[in-house]
Amino acid sequence: MAYLALVLAGEDSSKTSDIILRARELLLTGLDVSVVAKQLGISYLTLYRHFKKTIGLSPKEYAMKIRLAQAEDLISGSDMSIKQVAKRLGFHSASHLSLEYKKANGVAPQMKRQANAENSGPKDIFSWRPEAL
């Protein structure tokens, strides 16, 4: 336990880095931050301090960034509905995902998907037909 106290006090930066790396791995699985802290054998406050010092974000902010990056991938690269994406990533609802996504990206996920669809169409000039007029 004394060794852990030294690590957490910043005396052993490689061990602190190890804690952060293990926390990142656990957060990627979708675990709640408090559960991650328990699995690492440290308090939430200790985990918070290490994340703020090392990454500049709280563990919850970091976990949200991970989830939003995953949402971005699913919105851009799949045909899953926003509701399905929200459920898969552990958001309370599609509106919760939309709110967080818009806060982070400045645009709603539906608008991002629509923009991606408009930009991914055929670029062949020979696909134009006069009857489309």
- Named CATH topology of the largest domain: Arc Repressor Mutant, subunit A
Structural class based on helices, strands and sheet pairing: mainly alpha
The global form is elongated
- For this structure, what is the CATH class of the largest domain? Mainly Alpha
Distance between the termini: 76 Å
How many domains comprise the coordinates? 2
- Any idea what the CATH superfamily of the largest domain is called? Homeodomain-like
Helical content class: 55-70%
The radius of gyration is: 21 Å
Mean pLDDT: 83
Number of discrete helical segments: 8
Describe this structure in words.
The longest helix has 19 residues, at 59-77. Helix 5 (59-77) runs antiparallel to helix 6 (82-89) and helix 6 (82-89) packs across helix 7. The model is unreliable at 1-8 (pLDDT under 50). This protein has helices at residues 2-8, 13-28, 33-40, 44-54, 59-77, 82-89, 94-105, 109-119. It is built from eight helices and no strands. The chain folds into two domains: 2-56; 61-119, Arc Repressor Mutant, subunit A, CATH 1.10.10. By secondary structure, it is mostly helical.
